[in-house]
Design a protein that fits this description.
- The structure is a single chain.
- With about 650 residues, the protein is α/β, with parallel strands linked by helices.
- The protein folds into 3 domains: about 300 residues, Alpha-Beta Barrel (TIM Barrel); about 200 residues, Class I glutamine amidotransferase (GATase) domain (Rossmann fold); about 50 residues, Sandwich (Immunoglobulin-like).
- It is about 30% helix and about 20% strand.
- The chain is built from 17 helices and 28 strands.
- The chain has a 9-stranded parallel β-sheet with strand order 5-4-3-2-1-9-8-7-6, with helices on one face. A 7-stranded mixed β-sheet has the order 11-10-12-13-20-19-18, with helices on both faces. A 5-stranded antiparallel β-sheet has the order 22-23-28-25-26, covered by helices on one side.
- β8, α11 and β9 form a beta-alpha-beta unit.
- α11 packs parallel to α12.
- The two termini are about 30 Å apart.
- Bound molecules: beta-D-galactopyranose.
- The site of beta-D-galactopyranose has 11 residues, from loops.
Length: about 650
């Protein structure tokens, strides 16, 4: 259920007029009109103002703002302010303060300072949300609810006494019998057999490694506790204001590890995602594209909302680089190209005080005489021209496997190499596909993937039997699967699948691995036919698969680095190392084999995405780029193009099909 209003593409952001004298509202409303802002998020961190003393709810100050915005035609995404419990609440219920894995109870003064399992927090949440929902029931300005803020970031796991109590309840419900838990956790290792649920603690800091199966379950449990806190609010809001969509904003790719978004997305009426550039990272627009594709994928391809990004610099990175001219526009339109029906910012007006005073806003400290404000106004005009795209879809022929449980398990302690991280391989494959101008969906390995020509599994370390069977069926039915090393190694309890690696995928890949040979830091090996590789080497024995390329040097010289296994109507490929430069070639081989169509001969600084019959061309490079094979009308300047379009350096052109 997508919010009915505003029409077209929503434009605006977090709005915090409570930080300013009352008069600012009039000025802001005028500026919002100038820029075409049509949606703002209100009240995100305003618990202390909404409930200044226990049980005393004061919404008068907010009514004034909501009414004024409504009058001005700006719709409201009203937040529940539970991400910032007030000082009086913490003083009265100090037991809600979260405890870190190391045993430190955090203090008041920041935000996210309450544990999602703490009864006092849940009770106060329910009372406040009920009061808020009752107060704004039927208010025409409120078009959607924004619950909390970025669950799990930065508070992923809590180790307080309430969490431990809830954890034991969760374990009992999950395993029922303590012997089942002992078996799942491999408790005979290091003599950890439990005889009573009360003996089980959270996997808190220990001077050696804590049972990995216990930690994996704690990650699942902790994420679920946040979801319960969310669902408590959502259910109340649905009851009080039926028909008004409820969401919470995800923390994009930067901070998304602790939240399993496949599970979260099912709980939301509309998926909302935040994304912030890692300012110093070269080509950080590729990470942006990944974040947007992931948001669209967890939304099941449905339109989603970019709930936050920044107009310029953020303030929480080591060096907070300002966006270059045109960069904010490219970023915004890239999100729209990849399925977002909104472009929203943190925040409308930059704050004068507090922790985020050096964070950019749509209205910067420099005011409306700035280039930044001019870009904001121009973006508003651009987005109005894209109104017709609302609700349209992005289709992909290629999917990448992304599973949070595998992410968690892969990054627990004592793996064969510290260079094995979830994002390292994920980013490498995504980037190579992006540079090949291939738009991808992300998929969970247990879901229906039969519609994709190619599925790529970058280091899918944890793979259940059922998911492995799903991949097997996919290939047999004619699919093309490319698997990278350290995949299919363990089951859902971080227990190694029986026999030689990769236990869950041996048959499908037609090979077995005798021994891992992780490489030293900075060590490279060469591949037969040219190219080097890093991080990983291993001894592959084909058993049905054929070697496509061998290692030329290193511990596995003369043995396969890339294999191919024709199975049923499809093909399974296996890449046993991390090519330094050749990943694109490997992918191109698989894409060609599968007949995946993509533009050829374009520089890899040009982003090309199709949405709802429109072609988005985003030039991230310093040279003009001519794209052949495009006919239609340029949405922004109305120019007709017959067969080719030239995109200026840094520019974005959107071509609409000729009716
Ligand atoms: C987000 C958060 C916002 C704001 C922003 C700054 O993670 O949701 O409230 O802090 O970061 O970049």
């Amino acid at each position: 259920m997508y919010p009915e209003r505003p029409a077209g593409i929503a434009f605006g952001g977090d709005y915090n007029p409570e930080q300013w004298p009352r008069e600012i509202l009039e000025e802001d409303v005028a500026l919002m009109r100038e820029a075409g802002v049509n949606l703002v998020s209100l009240g995100l961190f305003s618990w202390a103002l909404m409930e200044p003393a226990e049980g005393r709810y004061e919404f008068g100050w907010l009514d004034e703002i909501v009414d004024r915005l409504h009058e001005a035609g700006v719709a409201v995404d009203l937040a529940t302010p539970t991400a910032a419990p007030p000082a009086w609440f913490i003083r009265k219920y100090p037991d809600v303060l979260p405890v870190t894995r190391e045993g430190t109870r955090i203090g008041f003064g920041g935000r996210q300072s309450a544990c999602s399992s703490a009864p006092a927090f849940r009770e106060a949440t329910a009372r406040l949300v009920r009061a808020l929902g009752e107060h704004y029931r039927g208010h025409p300005a409120v078009v959607m609810w924004h619950v909390h803020n970025e669950y799990g970031a930065p508070l992923g796991e809590c180790y307080c006494e309430h969490s431990v109590a809830a954890w034991r309840v969760w374990l009992k419900a999950t395993y029922r019998d303590i012997s089942a838990l002992n078996e799942a956790w491999g408790a005979t290792f290091w003599g950890q057999t439990y005889t009573d649920w009360a003996e089980i603690d959270a996997p808190r800091f220990n001077h050696t490694v804590v049972n990995p199966a216990q930690r994996l379950d704690y990650a699942r449990f902790s994420d679920g506790q946040h979801r319960e806190h969310y669902a408590l609010q959502r259910d109340l809001l649905r009851e009080l204001t039926p028909g008004i969509p409820v969401t919470t904003n995800f923390a994009g790719t930067v901070n998304c590890k602790s939240a399993d978004l496949w599970q979260w997305a099912r709980e939301l009426d509309v998926v909302a995602n935040d994304h912030y550039l890692q300012a110093e990272r070269p080509d950080n627009h590729i990470d942006l594209a990944m974040s947007a594709d992931l948001a669209r994928s967890v939304a099941g391809g449905a339109p989603w909302m970019l709930m936050e990004h920044s107009a310029g610099a953020v303030n929480w990175q080591p060096r907070n680089l300002a966006k270059r001219p045109g960069e904010m526009r490219r970023n915004s339109l890239a999100h729209v190209a990849r399925g977002s029906d909104s472009v929203l910012f943190f925040q409308f007006r930059a704050s004068r005080f507090g922790a985020e005073k050096f964070h950019s806003g749509m209205v910067p400290h420099a005011g409306t005489g700035s280039e930044q404000w001019r870009e904001v106004v121009r973006l508003g005009a651009d987005l109005r021209k894209l109104a017709g795209l609302r609700g349209s879809r992005v289709r992909a022929e290629v999917a990448v496997v992304w599973d949070w449980e595998s992410y968690w398990a892969l990054e627990l302690d004592w793996r064969p190499s510290v260079d094995l991280t979830f994002r390292e391989r994920m980013d490498a494959f995504y980037e190579a596909l992006w540079r090949e101008h291939v738009t991808v969906d992300f998929v969970h390995p247990s879901t229906d993937i039969s519609g994709y020509r190619v599925v790529v599994a970058p280091s899918s370390y944890l793979l259940t039997e059922a998911s492995a069977k799903n991949l097997h069926r996919y290939v047999e039915a004619g699919g093309n699967l490319l698997v990278s090393y350290f995949s299919g190694i363990v089951d859902e309890h971080d227990t190694i699948h029986p026999g030689a690696h990769p236990g869950a995928l041996r048959e499908l890949l037609g090979l077995s691995v005798e021994e891992f040979h992780p490489l030293r830091e900075h060590e490279t090996v060469t591949l037969a036919g040219g190219g080097t590789a890093r991080i990983w080497s291993e001894r592959v024995h084909p058993a049905g698969a054929v070697a496509v390329r061998d290692f030329a040097t290193g511990p596995d010289a003369g043995h396969p680095a890339l294999t191919r296994h024709d199975l049923g109507a499809g093909t399974a490929w296996y890449l046993a190392t991390a090519p330094v430069t050749g990943l694109r070639e490997v992918l191109a081989q698989v894409l060609d084999h599968a007949g995946v169509s993509r533009p050829r001969g374009l520089p890899d600084t040009l982003e090309l995405v199709r949405r709802g019959g429109h072609v988005f061309l985003i030039n991230h490079g310093d040279e003009p780029v001519t794209v052949e094979g495009v006919t239609g009308t340029s949405v922004f300047d109305g120019v007709r193009h017959e067969g080719s379009v030239t995109v200026a350096p840094g520019a974005v052109t959107v071509i609409a099909p000729t009716p």
